[in-house]
Specification:
The chain is mostly helical. Helix content is 72%, strand content 0%. The chain is elongated. The model is unreliable at 195-200 (pLDDT under 50).
Length: 200
């Protein structure tokens, strides 16, 4: 391995350590506890070293969010499993989405709540960010000819319900019924478009 390759590898490893430390602190103490000073202490680097990798805390949050979207895509694709094209696939994807949001609260905040410079729904959107959308679109596509807008609507509904439940504004005991209503709306919309209910 040449000197340049070794330096690139070492740089990538440092960035991974910084991001992992940010995630660990955020999950245990919340994002308010994640500062450049705190991360420097956690991983025993100087603050200038951290700034040489990330311009500010928001850039670290963005790096965490990118990891989150990769993980979310994997979780949703696994949830869809062999039931693709059936109502149960949408239910499984929706339930997996909720499980992700509730089991990784700080990660979910980095992805959807905290400010970052990440671009969404644009030509320049990173592939890692697109992956989560694509995973939901795969489950939605058998039910609609208008996959993009239906996927956006399905995702928006799941996110809205998850955030309302996470903040204690709706009853947690009704989650399954609410998700079932959203899924049925997607299925019904597909039936109206195709005139067929074979996939239900």
């Amino acid at each position: 391995m040449g000197s340049a390759e070794r330096k690139m590898r070492e740089r990538a490893e440092r960035e991974d350590r910084i991001v992992a430390a940010a995630r660990a602190v955020a999950e245990s103490e919340g994002w308010d506890a994640v500062t450049i000073r705190r991360l420097a202490t956690e991983i025993e680097y100087s603050q200038p070293v951290l700034y040489s990798h990330f311009a500010n805390r928001d850039a670290i949050v963005a790096a965490v969010a990118i990891e989150g979207f990769q993980e979310l895509a994997t979780v949703l694709r696994e949830a869809a499993g062999g039931a693709k094209g059936r109502r149960q696939s949408l239910m499984d994807v929706a339930m997996a989405y909720f499980a992700f949001a509730f089991s990784r609260p700080a990660l979910y905040e980095a992805m959807f709540i905290l400010p970052t410079q990440l671009q969404f729904a644009e030509a320049e959107t990173r592939s890692e960010l697109r992956a989560g959308f694509d995973a939901i679109a795969e489950a939605v596509s058998p039910f609609s000819r208008h996959v993009e807008i239906v996927t956006e609507t399905f995702w928006a509904a799941l996110h809205g319900l998850a955030e309302l439940e996470r903040s204690g504004r709706i009853r947690p005991g009704m989650r399954d019924k609410r998700i079932a209503l959203v899924v049925q709306a997607i299925v019904d919309a597909g039936v109206h478009q195709t005139g067929s209910s074979d996939q239900v």
